[in-house]
Structures are given as C-alpha cells and as structure tokens.
Write a structure and sequence with these properties.
The structure holds 2 protein chains of 2 kinds.
Chain A (H helix, E strand, L loop, with lengths): L1 H30 L2 H22 L5 H19 L5 H15 L1 H23 L6 H11 L5 H7 L4 H17 L9 H23 L8 H19 L4 H14 L25 H16 L6 H14 L8 H14 L3 H15 L1 H9 L12 H12 L3 H14 L3 H12 L2
Helix pairs in contact in A: 1-2, 1-3, 1-5, 2-3, 3-4, 6-8, 6-9, 7-8, 7-10, 9-10, 9-11, 10-11, 11-12, 11-13, 12-13, 13-14, 14-15, 15-16, 16-17, 17-18, 18-19
Chain B lengths: L1 E7 L2 H5 L5 H16 L3 E6 L7 E6 L3 E6 L9 E8 L3 H9 L8 E5 L12 H17 L1
The chains are: A mainly alpha, B alpha+beta.
Chain lengths: 419, 139
C-alpha cells in the first residue's frame, strides 16, 4: 500500500512536470495574475495528491487538474466578491465559458501555445532582476521545485523562495500584461528570454564533478526550454540559433573532461566521444535559422562557429577561415575582449601566425584580460610559430602562472621548457 | 535522462502493411506534442524484417549472414523513440498518451555519462577537495 502510494506520488510528479506550465499559463490568462494562477495550480496538485492514490491517476490528468483549478478559481473569486466588480465579471466569464464545457477545453488547448509563449515572456520580463527571471522561468515553465532551483544555484531555499515571491509581486504591482509583445518590443523581450535560457544552460555547463547533480541537470532544463521555445516560435532565427548553440555545446559534455575531471580543450577532445545525435540536431536547428531570415544574430553566429568544429572529423580539418569570418561578424555585433581574442586565434589558424599576432598584440593593453591566462597562452603559441622563441617562452610561463587548471599548467610549462 | 521507447512488430508491420490514415494522423499529433514539449530527441519507424538481415558471430573470424524475415514477430523491433525526460515516471506518463490500441511498448533507460554525480574517480575527488580548500583559503 505504501509502495503503491509512493508510485502514485511519482506519477503525479511526472504529470506535474508535463502539465504544470500549460496549467499555469492557461490559468494566468483567465485570472490575469501569475501568482494567483500558480497558487490555483498548486491547490489542484494538492487535491490530486489526496485523491489519486486511492482513485488512480485519471485517463486525462491534465484536463482533471485544469478542471479542478478552474473550479477553485471560481470559488475564490466568488468568495472575494467584496474585492472588485472586475473579479466578479471574471468569475462570470469563467462560468459562462464553463457552461459550454466541451468547447472550453478545446479553446484552451488551441490557445495553449500562445499562453506558454506569453508565460515565457512574462517570466523573463525586464522589470525583474536577471536572477529572478531565471528562478521564475525554472519554476513556472520548468516545473522545478523551489528546493531544486536553490540546490542548482547553490543558494539557501528561503532566499530562493523569497526571490520568487518578490518577482510575482513585482509583476502584479506593475500590472505587466499577459501577452506576446509585438514590433520593436518583441525583439528586445525575446532577447531577454534567450538570455535567461542561455544563462541556465551555462550555469549547468560550468558545473564541475562533485557538484550536486541538480547543477548539470540545468543543461537539460535549458535545452528543454529552448526546444519548447523553438516549437512555439520556429520562425525566429535567434531562437533556432540558441537551440543550435546549446545542442552542439551539449554534444561535447562527455568529451570535455578527462577521467580525473580536468577540462580538455576543444581541439584536444576525443571526437568519437561527442554526441553525434545532438550535433545533428544542432546542425538542423542552424539550418532552420539560416532558412528563416539568416544566421546573422549573435546566437546563430556562435552556433555557426560551434558547427564548424562539430563538422570537422579531426581537429586539422577545421574550417578556420569560416570561423574567422564568423568571429569578425560576432565582434562587430557583440564586441568584447574575449571575442576579440578568439577572433585573433581563428585568424592565426586561418591566415597564418603573423595575422593572428597582429590582432593579439592589440589586446595586450586590455585591462580586463590582464589576468586571463588564455591571452599569454595564445600569444605564446603565435610567437612560437613565427620563431620568436624567447618571447614565446615568457608568455607560456606567464600563462602557466595565471591558470588555475593543473593540467593546463603542466602543458604550458612543458611548452615553455621545450623552447 | 534519456529513454528509448521500443515499439514491437506485429503481423501488419511484418507484412509491410502501412498503418491507416487515422492512426498516422493520431501518431503525427502525438509526435508533435513530444516535440513541442522538448521531449523528443529522435524517432523512427522500421521496415519489415524481410528487408533486414542478421549477422551471426561465432568466434573471432566466423560471420554468417542470415536474411530476413525473422519468425518471432513479437520480439522484433518495429520502431523507436529517444526521449529526454526527468524521470522514468515522466517517460511512462508520456507513453500512456501514445495512440496505440494494442500490444506492449517497452521503455529502457539509456546509459548516461558518468562525468558527474556519485561516479567520481578518486583523482577527481581529490581535485575537488583541493579546489574547496583553495576557495576556503581565499575568503
């Protein structure tokens, strides 16, 4: 009996994972308050936890949860008559809609995609601080528990819970509309959605061996969110670009550390350990970006670079000229010292070490790269290739003193020693 | 985690009879839902075993090719999906929504990388401890 109850609880958790975002999105459209919508959905979940262990999981659990939540919404609105006439109207509206019962669920199903997209835009609204957008997105769209989000971001659960409460209050107080923004605003708002998803991905990607498993799981969450978004807005090239970038980066997760947990640089990775199915998915997403308006945005450009590496069966087959061109475009769009450094390396690989060295030398005075070991490492490599061995040796020694990665330090000292 | 969902053959699939329009439409809808939920990684249907073959291995050298069809219909694979989900229960929940009318469909978990979690090598653990000491020392 106890076992059966636990099984049902697991099944309910799975139903929640599948249905919660749609449920909350649909309810938000009806009650116009995402906090209230989440409460109603949660109440429906509690009801399911009470009933289903005895009755079994219903055939259409999503519809059950929705019906239960809607009834609660009506009860709640009736009880709060004193609040506002508007609420009454809403209550009546729901009732009338429910009177035509069979049609209602269809209407909600038809609209469900739009509602999910609205919920994504709402959770990533620029009125919220970035970390709140991330937390709210994982909570409302990922269906993650507060505890799981807290663990993934190495933060105390009460802090996270507080952040979520404040975020929902901010959205309510500012009366942020539940809508998909149009025109110019749409692009800016979409950037925020993409940024949030990529932040989640990178948080997971940065996780190291020994971290709580919830951290690397963030990569999967971000991929899922990206794939959902790509289903909702397939014509947006940057959505496809971001998905392509994440799929291809995720394809290297297996190959990027050695058995002792030390990172392995991209060009040294065992390519047979790359996940070729994810690469295939990434390349397809990139093609879709190209077809729907061109892979010219920052995510699609980065995906293009990742794709050049992914297409090369061995490191020496890498199309560096193409990578250099993509970095040129990226540096024009999103200039940063790190992009410049990568661009210099690509130029060095594509057009000879002198070309790379010219670009790298220009970066030496850059204050933000002063402690960045990859700058002297790259410069040392180029200096060695043009035969300036003394300077190359100094740069390798400097890079070795700056890196925190033991394996990399040994490699750099080895290179210095051979000069 | 990933699951492979294995659909077994039946008389029709082995006879090369394609599912009727209604089933194909239903299946298309289900696939679309899987894609929209970010669950579907891959999925394919397989042709009848009469178009396939087997290679039997005996010892280091000997290989015998056996052409299809193969007799044990219910044991044959007729199609598969690869799903990305959070738990086995989620995979089961999804599978329950598939528009099959009969037969059994199997769910099997795919081996994942062991580059995180409890599968740490002693070296990695040592390295972690060193890192933690460093971080603690810096504060």
């Amino acid at each position: 009996m106890a076992v059966a109850a636990t099984d049902t609880h697991r099944a309910i958790e799975a139903v929640w994972r599948i249905e919660s975002a749609r449920l909350i999105a649909g309810l938000t459209r009806i009650v116009r308050d995402v906090g209230l919508a989440e409460d109603l959905a949660q109440d429906a979940l509690v009801a399911a936890l009470e009933r289903w262990p005895a009755s079994g999981v219903p055939d259409n659990p999503g519809a059950w949860l929705m019906a239960s939540a809607k009834n609660r919404a009506i009860d709640r609105l009736r009880r709060q008559k004193r609040l506002e006439r508007k609420h009454e109207e809403l209550g009546r509206e729901i009732e009338t809609r429910q009177a035509g019962a069979p049609g209602l669920d269809d209407a909600i199903d038809d609209d469900v995609g739009d509602d999910l997209l609205r919920l994504m835009f709402l959770s990533c609204h620029p009125i919220l601080p970035t970390e709140s957008r991330v937390a709210l997105t994982l909570r409302l769209l990922g269906g993650l528990k507060t505890e799981e989000i807290a663990r993934a971001f190495l933060q105390p659960e009460p802090t996270l819970a507080q952040r979520l409460v404040r975020a929902k209050r901010t959205l309510a107080e500012a009366r942020v509309p539940f809508e998909v923004p149009r025109g110019e605003e749409r692009n800016a708002r979409l950037d925020s959605v993409l940024e949030v998803i990529y932040l989640i991905f990178n948080e997971g990607y940065a996780a190291t061996a020994g971290d709580d498993w919830m951290r690397p799981a963030l990569c999967e969450e971000a991929l899922r969110l990206g794939r959902i978004l790509a289903g909702l807005a397939p014509e947006e090239p940057e959505v496809q670009g971001l998905v392509a970038l994440m799929e291809i980066q995720a394809s290297r997760i297996r190959a990027r550390v050695d058995p002792s947990g030390e990172p392995i640089l991209l060009l040294d990775q065992d390519r047979s350990r790359w996940d070729h199915m994810l690469i295939g998915r990434g390349l397809q997403a990139l093609e879709r970006a190209e077809r729907s308006g061109g892979a010219t945005g920052p995510y699609a450009l980065q995906a293009g670079i990742a794709a050049c590496h992914a297409r090369a069966r061995v490191a020496s087959e890498t199309d560096w000229a193409r990578i250099a061109g993509l970095y040129d475009a990226l540096a024009g769009l999103r200039p940063s010292p790190v992009v410049e450094l990568n661009r210099a390396v690509a130029h060095g690989m594509a057009f000879g070490p002198e070309a790379g060295l010219r670009l790298v030398d220009a970066l030496v005075p850059e204050p933000s790269l002063r402690k960045y070991h990859l700058l002297p490492a790259a410069r040392g490599d180029l200096l060695e290739k043009v035969g300036r061995f003394g300077e190359a040796r100094e740069e390798f020694m400097r890079a070795a003193s700056l890196t925190r990665n033991e394996r990399e330090r040994r490699v750099l000292l080895g290179r210095a020693g051979r000069l | 985690m990933r699951f492979m969902v294995i659909v077994k053959a039946n008389k029709d699939s082995e006879a090369g009879v394609l599912p009727d329009q209604e089933i194909l439409t239903e299946m298309g809808k289900f696939n679309e839902e899987l894609v929209k939920a970010g669950v579907m990684l891959a999925g394919e249907g397989l042709q009848a075993s009469s178009k396939g073959a087997r290679v039997r291995f005996e010892g280091p050298k000997k290989r015998t090719v056996i052409d299809g069809p193969f007799a044990e219909t219910k044991e044959l694979v007729a199609g598969f999906w690869l799903w990305q989900v959070k738990s086995k229960e989620e995979a089961i929940e999804w599978l329950k929504r598939a528009p099959f009318q009969e037969g059994e469909v199997e769910i099997r978990q795919v081996f994942e990388t062991e580059d995180f979690g409890a599968e740490l090598t002693p070296e990695a653990r040592q390295r972690e401890e060193r890192l933690r000491e460093q971080i603690a020392g810096r504060k």
